[in-house]
Amino acid sequence: MIKGSILIIDDEEKILSLLSRIIGLEGYTVSEAHTAKDGLKKLEKEDIQVVITDVKLPDATGIELTGKIKSLYPHIELIVLTAYGTIADGVKAIKNGAFDYITKGNDNDKIIPLLARAMDKALLQKRVQQLEKKISKKYSFDSIIGESTQIRNAVEMAKKVAGTDATVLITGETGTGKEVFAQAIHYTGKRHNRNFVAVNCSAFSKDILESELFGHRAGAYTGATKDTKGLFEEADGGTIFLDEIGEMSIELQSKLLRVLETNEFIKVGDSKTTKVDVRVIAATNRDLQKETDREHFRSDLFYRLAVFQVALPALRERTKDIKPLAEHFLQLFAGKVNKPVPKMTKEFVEKLISYPWKGNIRELKNIMERTVILSDKMELTVDELPFEIKSSNGDGLKSSAYSLTEVEKQHIKKVLEHTKGNKTEAARLMGIGLTTLYRKLEEYKLS
Asked: Which residues, 6+ apart, have CB-to-CB distance to 243 below 8 Å?
């Protein structure tokens, strides 16, 4: 099994050949270079995890080369070799990013275990780098689906503020994707490698939310047996996302305002302040301007939060995006349940587009998940949709769907589903004759 790739840079042919043979026998893939220039060319073309370089090279010093490689390829680990080791050179090599610095000849027995440790670190860094890229891609603005003018405008607004530390207020109805935007702002900003902490302010009572946000000292209240960090401390250096900020109590709003203005707060049961460096992104489905007029929300906090506002459109306002969103969810959920991705008929899509989607993207996502689970067809028709969508006339109202005929048709379908197609049992349960049932099946084209 190949353990990893090593590049050895040394202008002494005998040393280069010996090291290559020893390291190759340990299961590593080995590349060779005689100069710093050749070594850098190899790194451009090959996937190298560890570099072993001599201090004295024809066109550079190994110590200078270490700094250059680390600046270009931070995940690569370097071991510097020298015939005449000095403390000053060793210190400089480590400062330039070398994993270690050893003397040729005297330390031959150390090279393999040292190389193994360097490789472990390099591979771990590479995995972390890959994971960070994956996370950044997953939560980037590119992951936001839609080409409508409304959603593109919202994305452009969010992109402009992402690279700053400005407080952001995201507004929009429930289910419009406020947390998705908050994550995109965080992961494309300069705090992307620090924590993103989300909390729903409507999920806690005032006292519990205060403790969740700011932490508490042992003995602050019954059951507080130890000091506990709050979410602001967990997010230190990163971003905290305060969802449904409009549900926060007036008393707690004043404490939040202090954090925004001074970057400090007092834990529950404490007497001293705790300092943090946190970016705040808040979201609400309420009109906070109206809430301030009614004195349900502090005006000073509103203006502090609304340094930069991003308004998300409701799904019914961006009908152009419904089909691509539905296709995305079909692929997502079909993959999860290991089913082929079904196609949507024109009528199926038209029904989705005409439906008002009061729950917005979240509601559409739930409907598509349900459809994938329940249907085994390769083509989705209107029949696969829930009754409320099939019967909608586009205004959130039902058209002829609540006529006795439609209700009877849907009832017969449900009873037949319950009896697994047993018509005799279905007729018995409905209290009608079998002949009547067959006539209804023919009339409603259910047979």
From this structure: 178, 179, 182, 198, 199, 200, 201, 202, 282, 283
H-state helical runs in 139-249? 149-162, 178-187, 206-214, 231-234
Given CATH 1.25.40.10, say whether it is the number of domain 141-313.
Answer: no
CATH number of 403-447: 1.10.10.60
* pLDDT tens profile 356-415: 999 999 999 999 999 999 888 999 999 899 888 887 765 544 444 556 677 788 888 888
408 three-state secondary structure: helix
Look up the CATH architecture of domain 314-399: Orthogonal Bundle (1.10)
Q: Are 314 and 174 in contact (CB under 8 A)?
A: no
d(CA 298, CA 279): 20
How far is residue 133's CA from residue 187's CA, in Å, rounded to a whole number? 10
The β-bridge relationship of strands 308-311 and 168-171 is parallel
Encoded amino acid at 5, one letter: S
Express each pLDDT in 213-228 by its tens digit: 999 888 777 777 788 8
Amino acid present at 236: D
Nearest one of 72, 128, 118, 66 to 97, comparing CA atoms: 66
Q: What is the CATH number of domain 5-135?
A: 3.40.50.2300
pTM summary value: 0.66
Name every residue whose Cβ is closer than 8 Å to that of residue 120 and which is 6 or more positions away in sequence. Answer: none
Q: Fold identical between 5-135 and 141-313?
A: yes
Name residue 310's beta-bridge partners.
170
Q: One-letter amino acid identity for 331?
A: Q
Q: Which residues of the chain have pLDDT under 70?
A: 1-2, 84-89, 105-108, 132-137, 393-404, 447
